């Protein structure tokens, strides 16, 4: 039997190339290798989106994005997190085994606290709902960026604790991290993130892509000056597209003879050339939203059937039946 791969993305804004290279691409590449459960994390999105109509739109848009990158609903179970309410029940059970000091070490909570943000309970408890997302489908592997590895560690800890207390129930998942794309840089050099406003939209217009790339800050070195590609935020994005062209560009950086404007122009052309076929597919998919909703509904039925079996086992073991 194929191993199970699971992942999800929050519908909190337009998909960007960081989402694609950091996670989404793997789903299309590996759907013949794994049995995949890919969900749109709309429960998670409630920690930051408080507009029902907007969340509905973002959710449908993200489903279209998944299909446009090559997800085949015959090979991959694509569904809405909210179509599987058992996941929130399992999260509550996990809450009763999890201490406040343990969750206080979670990166997202610590970051928000450090910025003096008033943290809602959903954000604080986010890793436990994520653990339930992962464990309810007996996932073997979970593709994540390097900065998300802690969430898998929390899921593993939660599974191990439940198994110790109530008996062997949950499979221990493994993180899957692409070695060559651990964290996709944004236009400001930080991790590409909608919350930082440093993204390049995956299905943006040519003009939107150009505007984003041209906003990348650079130093004051002239065209003929040698440049360190390791220090250049533009070159960091070129590295998303490995190959002979990249190595030739690296050599030009080190030798001198290329300016940042030319490097940015090359990057714009590279990104547009890469995303144009996916953008065309997405435009076609958007013409029939009912077909997308049907795919999500059918995927939710498959996912919920799996989740119900696991939650039934949990209910029995903890004494709810």
How would you describe the overall organization of this protein?
- Helix content is 54%, strand content 7%.
- With 321 residues, it is mainly α.
- It folds into two domains: 4-184 and 288-318, Rossmann fold (3-Layer(aba) Sandwich); 203-282, Tyrosyl-Transfer RNA Synthetase, CATH 1.10.240.10.
- Helix 1 (17-30) links the parallel strand 1 (4-9) and strand 2 (35-40).
- Helix 7 (121-135) crosses helix 8 (149-166) and helix 9 packs antiparallel against helix 12 (260-285).
CATH architecture label of the largest domain: 3-Layer(aba) Sandwich
Count of the domains: 2
> Could you give the order of strands across the largest sheet?
1-2-3
CATH-defined topology of the largest domain: Rossmann fold
Q: Major β-sheet, in short?
A: 3 strands, parallel
Mean pLDDT: 93
Element-level helix/strand string: EHEHHEHHHHEHEHHHHH
Strand content is 5-15%
Task: Give a count of the beta strands, DSSP E runs of length 2 or more.
Answer: 5
Helix-strand category = mainly alpha
Shape verdict: globular
Could you name the CATH homologous superfamily of the largest domain? HUPs
State the CATH class of the largest domain: Alpha Beta
Counted by DSSP, the helix tally is 13
Distance between the termini: 31 Å
* Low-confidence regions: none
Helix amount: 40-55%
Radius of gyration: 21 Å
GO biological process, one term: tryptophanyl-tRNA aminoacylation
Subunit structure: Homodimer.
EC number: 6.1.1.2
Binding site for ATP: 10-12, 18-19, 145-147, 184, 191-195
């Amino acid at each position: 039997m194929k191993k199970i791969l699971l992942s999800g993305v929050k519908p909190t804004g337009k998909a960007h190339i960081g989402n694609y290279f950091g996670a989404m691409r793997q789903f299309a590449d590996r759907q013949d290798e794994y049995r995949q459960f890919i969900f749109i994390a709309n429960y998670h999105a409630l920690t930051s989106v408080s507009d029902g109509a907007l969340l509905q739109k973002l959710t449908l848009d993200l489903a279209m994005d998944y299909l446009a990158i090559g997800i085949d609903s015959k090979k991959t179970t694509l569904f809405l997190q909210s179509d599987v309410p058992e996941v929130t029940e399992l999260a509550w059970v996990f809450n009763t085994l999890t201490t406040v000091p343990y969750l206080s070490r979670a990166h997202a909570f610590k970051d928000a606290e450090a910025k003096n943000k008033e943290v809602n309970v959903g954000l604080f408890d986010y890793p436990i709902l994520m653990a339930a997302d992962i464990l309810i489908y007996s996932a073997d592997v979970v593709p994540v960026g390097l900065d998300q590895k802690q969430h898998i560690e929390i899921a593993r800890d939660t599974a191990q604790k439940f198994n110790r207390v109530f008996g062997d129930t949950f499979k221990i998942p493994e993180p899957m991290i692409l070695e060559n794309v651990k964290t996709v840089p944004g236009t400001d050099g930080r991790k590409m993130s909608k919350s930082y406003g440093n993204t390049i939209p995956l299905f943006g217009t040519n003009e939107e892509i150009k505007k984003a790339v041209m906003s990348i800050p650079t130093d004051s070195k002239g065209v003929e000056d040698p440049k360190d590609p390791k220090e250049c935020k533009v070159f960091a994005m070129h590295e998303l597209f490995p190959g002979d062209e990249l190595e030739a560009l690296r050599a030009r950086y080190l030798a001198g003879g290329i300016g940042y404007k030319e490097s940015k122009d090359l990057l714009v052309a590279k990104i547009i050339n890469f995303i144009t076929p996916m953008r065309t597919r997405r435009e076609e998919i958007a013409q029939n939203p009912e077909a997308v909703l049907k795919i999500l509904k059918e995927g939710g039925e498959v996912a919920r059937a799996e989740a119900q079996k696991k939650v039934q086992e949990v209910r029995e073991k903890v004494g709810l039946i």
